[in-house]
Design goal:
Layout: H1 2-7, E1 19-20, E2 26-27, H2 38-53, H3 62-70
């Protein structure tokens, strides 16, 4: 859904594509050394959106919820 696409940035990818990597690192803006920034914000925000959309007409797909839980 559009809601899910806005919350979960990308499926697990093979580097150097942006998104959640196979090792659960979050790659944004290309390969660069940047620690503890986007990943923490993503985990917090995605978790909130999962809670906020549960029971609505726009819940995140189960696979996306599992990806966030695994992250």
């Amino acid at each position: 859904s559009a809601v899910a696409a806005a919350i979960v940035p990308a499926p697990v990818t093979t580097p150097p594509t942006e998104g959640i990597q196979p090792d659960f690192a979050l790659l944004a803006h290309g390969p660069q050394l940047y620690i503890a920034g986007y990943g923490g914000d993503f985990a917090q925000d995605a978790g909130l959106w999962i809670l906020w959309t549960q029971g609505t007409d726009w819940p995140l797909p189960a696979a996306d919820v599992q990806l966030v839980q695994d992250y």
